[in-house]
Write a structure and sequence with these properties.
33% of the residues lie in helices and 14% in strands. It is of the alpha/beta class and 296 residues long. The mean pLDDT is 93. The structure holds glutamic acid. Glutamic acid (GLU) binds next to loops.
Length: 296
């Protein structure tokens, strides 16, 4: 796949990374911690940062959250090398997932040549029932309903899974060192969900490839998703996986990670209440052990 990003966008950047929030809520301190690592490591490595709006899930994402996210980035004073927040506001973008359905359709067509892609009617409760019956979570290969062998029709109400094969993938994480894990941690990979949304698992790999991203910087909660993403990239024709750096998460006093769903205080609200940008970046950096320079 050829990259849609012109290499001339920044004079020969040594790495290309990205900041890729999902507009399912307002930005919170966890995003700021990610931004600290993304911009901090990019600066250290002489790289550039792309901004991507990961709104693959049409039920959970909202345009008003995207608008707030763009405003928050402007208020924070951090700008990606490409594209500008203004370009997102002005219309369709190569960097907004909901504008790029054909790229994911095309990827699935290429995947069908490389491996088996099949309809699956397993729901969360199918996985839950299997867990109840077996005392452990499903870990594949395939899915608990054995849909790979059932030849279900592809269409509304059915998800789409891709066989990733078996075994582990290994990588050297820039922050965590040698890492390895099974590609079928949760069974064959769901590439389209039962509501017809392309999944995060598919979109992130397709986008990192077509955007020319060669260094992925994100929270440790995505460590277990990495082996499947490396394998999927290879099946899609990616010659070399990107580099990975998984950083610590901002946690509450009880150890749980901050999330939009449970009402983590948003950056916008904190700024409205009088916090300064520097103060917020310092807080986020301290929470995740970043000791280098701050983005602003
Ligand atoms: N949209 C994802 C998130 O907000 C980004 C995941 C990634 O960096 O791979 O968690």
């Amino acid at each position: 796949m050829t990259s849609v990003v012109s290499p001339a966008a920044k004079a020969t950047p040594r790495v290309t990374t990205r900041f890729a929030p999902a507009p399912t809520g307002r930005l919170h301190l966890g995003h700021l911690a990610n931004a600290v690592y993304v911009w901090g490591l990019a600066q250290r490595l002489g790289g550039r940062v792309l901004l991507r709006v990961e709104d693959h899930d049409r039920q959970r994402c909202r345009p008003e959250y995207e608008a707030a996210l763009l405003d928050d980035l402007d208020r924070l004073g951090i700008a990606a090398d490409l594209p500008s927040t203004a370009s997102f506001r002005s219309g369709p973008s190569l960097f907004r997932q909901s504008d790029n359905g054909p790229a994911y359709e095309d990827a699935v067509r290429r995947l069908e040549v490389a491996t088996q892609v099949y309809a699956c009617d397993c729901s969360r409760s199918t996985f839950g029932a299997w867990r109840e019956a077996n005392g452990r979570t499903w870990s594949g290969p395939g899915c608990p309903g054995d849909c790979r062998a059932r030849g279900l029709p592809v269409g509304p109400g059915a998800g789409l899974r891709a066989s990733l094969g078996e075994g582990d993938e290994a990588w050297t994480d820039t922050l965590l060192g040698e890492q390895a894990g099974p590609v079928t941690g949760e069974g064959d990979l769901l590439v389209r969900d039962r509501n017809g949304n392309w999944t995060y698992a598919l979109c992130v790999v397709v986008d990192d490839l077509r955007h020319g991203v060669d260094f992925v910087i994100r929270g440790e909660d995505l460590l277990e998703a990495t082996p499947a993403q490396i394998r999927l990239g290879r099946l899609l024709g990616r010659e070399r996986p990107p580099g990975f750096a998984h950083h610590p998460l901002v946690r509450r006093a009880d150890g749980t990670k901050l999330s939009k769903a449970d009402g983590a205080e948003s950056i916008g609200e904190l700024l409205d209440a009088g916090s300064s940008v520097t103060e917020l970046f310092r807080l986020a950096a301290a929470a995740v052990g970043w000791t280098g320079p701050l983005p602003v």
